[in-house]
Design a protein that fits this description.
Blueprint (H helix, E strand, L loop, with lengths): L2 H56 L5 H17 L19 H21 L3 H9 L3 H33 L2 H6 L19 H4 L3
Keywords: Membrane, Transmembrane, Transmembrane helix
Organism: Actinotalea lenta
Protein name: NUDIX hydrolase
Length: 202
């Protein structure tokens, strides 16, 4: 091979390498954005679920003890998901990103809400009685639908996190630090098991 041919081959190889690195960096950037948007979507659905639980607790259809416990758990979840306690925590427009500590507090509050609602709605007969009350079925259906969307949103978010972490483990990504300053994304591990009696009516 002549020097010109060698130069062309080396240049072509460098261009291909640069292109492959750019493709990998672009993919990683898209995955990080996907993780961010999926976490925001999950946060929205968690607010909807907590709001539905708070509305059910305030309806007067549940027994007094269950109403108080579910109501308190719902408001704790709403407050944990709000970066500003003075903001309307029942709204869906609070999108200031939470830090790791705030997310941990939020996840704990959501798990406690799940456990509290499950305990309050564990008896199928009681759930059937609630559905027979005026607006009871509507409130339970709203809670059920919001809960189901939480489950789907969390699954979607965790899949996005798993994809991103797999790409970040690649040698070229670690050596060239293609992730930049983006933090390593974490899955959301909360108790989101729906009450059996509530899920039967899906």
């Amino acid at each position: 091979m002549t020097w010109s041919e060698v130069t062309v081959a080396i240049t072509a190889a460098l261009l291909v390498t640069v292109w492959l690195v750019w493709v990998q960096a672009s993919r990683l950037d898209r995955l990080h954005r996907k993780v961010g948007s999926s976490r925001a979507a999950l946060d929205n659905q968690l607010v909807r679920r907590a709001s539905a639980a708070a509305e059910l607790a305030a309806s007067g259809l549940m027994d007094p003890v269950s109403s108080v416990l579910v109501g308190e758990a719902a408001w704790r979840a709403l407050l944990a998901g709000s970066v500003d306690a003075d903001a309307p925590v029942g709204g869906l427009d609070v999108h200031v990103p939470l830090g790791d500590a705030e997310h941990a507090e939020r996840d704990l509050a959501e798990s406690e809400l799940s456990a509290t609602v499950r305990a309050a709605l564990e008896e199928p007969d009681e759930v059937a009685a609630l559905r027979a009350e005026p607006y009871g079925a509507e409130l339970l259906d709203a809670l059920q639908a919001a809960w189901y969307r939480v489950t789907l949103a969390r699954r979607f978010h965790n899949e996005a996190v798993a994809q991103t972490r797999r790409v970040r483990r690649k040698v070229v990504v670690r050596v060239l630090r293609l992730q930049g300053r983006a933090p390593l994304p974490a899955t959301v591990e909360i108790d989101d098991a729906m009450p059996d009696a509530l899920g039967e009516h899906r």
